[in-house]
Amino acid sequence: MKYPSKSPKIQTLNVSKRARIIAISAFLVLLAVLIAGAIVIKQPASSPKTDTDLLGNAPSLGSPEAKVTIIEYGDFGCSTCKNWFKAGVLNQIRAKYGDSIHFVWRDFPVITPESPKAAEAGQCANEQEKFWQYHDLLYQHSPALSISDLKTYAKEMGLDTRKFDQCLDSGKYKDKVYAETQDALQHNFMATPSFLLNDRPLLGPPSFNYLVSLIDPILGN
Q1: What confidence score (pLDDT) does residue 9 get?
Q2: How is the chain split into domains, by residue range?
Q3: The pLDDT of residue 90
Q4: What is the rounded distance in angstroms from the CA atom of residue 173 to the CA atom of residue 117?
Q5: Distances (CA, A) of 8 to 20, 45, 149
Q6: 79: which DSSP letter?
Q7: pLDDT of residue 6
Q8: pLDDT for position 185
Q9: So what's the pLDDT on residue 52?
Q10: Which residues pair with 10 in a beta bridge?
């Protein structure tokens, strides 16, 4: 037996009813999301460390009161960074200007998989006031930057290896290294090493003569 089909009027009513149900359901879901969001906003913040907090206590040379501050964003796994170090530009600048230049190191470990842990190792050495010696040693030995290598270099330098190893294994400075990386990216740096001179970005690793041309006018030389 063939049953008669539903009339167009009944079909229209059913479609309209389903549409209302879908609309109400969507509204309820949206309302639940908004309520949940309001609850999250009202929850007290746990006051995590700010980027400024994490950027503090950076390894540096010279007087913080100097008229000229140069910040290097470097990577211990970067061959160009290593070449700039081997060229001795920093030593030349230090020899010429002494404490009249404040030179600051910030980590920008983006070149090799080992770079972030090497950056943390540098911060662990800084805890023992041996950052620059460790910095030089890492560049002398890079690209050998495995965790085992990093600990060996600390031992060679005569660092407190128990303290150093515990610092490195715990990831104590992981957040600091991340914050410094974000700081570099916020300055739109896309390569290592990158530099700021009194907040002025410098393209590429600067030569000694180029730095002198920028520094002398500031110091009135």
Answers
A1: 44
A2: 51-219
A3: 97
A4: 9
A5: 19, 58, 80
A6: H
A7: 45
A8: 96
A9: 60
A10: none
Residue 47: the pLDDT is 34
Spatial contact of 173 and 56, defined as CB atoms under 8 Å apart: no
Kindly list the strands in the beta sheet with 60-61, ordered across the sheet, starting from the edge strand earlier in the chain. Answer: 60-61, 101-107, 68-74, 194-197, 200-202
All residues at 6 or more sequence positions from 39 whose CB lies less than 8 Å from its CB, including other chains: none
CA pair distance 220, 215, nearest whole angstrom: 9
Per CATH, is 51-219 categorized as 3.40.50.720?
Answer: no
The Cβ of residue 31 has, within 10 Å, a number of other Cβ atoms equal to 10
Check residue 204 and give its pLDDT: 81
Alpha carbon distances (Å) from 172 to 25, 46, 76, 136, 177:
48, 19, 18, 22, 10
Low-confidence ranges of the chain (pLDDT < 50): 1-17, 19, 21-50
Q: What share of the chain is helix, strand, coil (3-state, %, to 5)?
A: 60, 10, 30
CB under 8 Å to 80, separation ≥6 — which residues?
191, 192, 193, 205
Nearest to 70 by CA among 39, 99, 108, 32: 99
Q: Side-chain half-sphere of 7: how many Cα atoms within 13 Å?
A: 3
φ, ψ dihedrals at 25, nearest 5°: -65, -45
